[in-house]
């Protein structure tokens, strides 16, 4: 399995979770609206099995800039996302986790704010 395949599979699986609108397989410029997200590629390390590597993928799902709404979304999405990626038959995910994060952002008026996101991280094998 190449790197593109688990990225696309992770995006598709998470996009099917209730409360998630769309997760894109590629990182880059995206909508910073609740329910939208993208997949980032993390470290790639040798596997103990020859010919394959372990890769860490993190899907960042935007929960919004309102803390109370983000907390409400977190209550349902955290477990739902981990369950979705660990039961999907499209790829062998292990070490799955969901980590709420607060990202500092610069607002259009130059002020500062916070964007709340859920980082869903998995490890899978690629060749």
Task: Describe the protein.
This protein has a single domain, classed as 2-Layer Sandwich (Alpha-Beta Plaits), CATH 3.30.70. Helices cover 26% and strands 43% of the residues. It contains two helices and five strands; from the N terminus they run αβββαββ. The protein has a five-stranded mixed beta sheet with strand order 1-2-3-5-4, with helices on one face. The chain is globular. The N and C termini lie close together (6 Å). The mean pLDDT is 92.
Summarize the structure.
Helix content is 26%, strand content 43%. It contains 2 helices and 5 strands. The longest helix has 21 residues, at 67-87.
Question: Main traits of this protein?
Answer:
127 residues, alpha+beta, Alpha-Beta Plaits, 2 helices, globular
Low-confidence stretches: none
Mean pLDDT equals 92
How do the strands line up in the largest sheet?
A: 1-2-3-5-4
Classify the helix fraction into a percent range: 25-40%
Under CATH at level 1, the class stands as: Alpha Beta
What radius of gyration results from the CA coordinates?
15 Å
- What is CATH's topology name? Alpha-Beta Plaits
Secondary structure elements and pairings:
Blueprint: H1 4-15, E1 22-24, E2 36-46, E3 53-64, H2 67-87, E4 94-106, E5 112-126
Parallel strand pairs: 1-2
Antiparallel strand pairs: 2-3, 3-5, 4-5
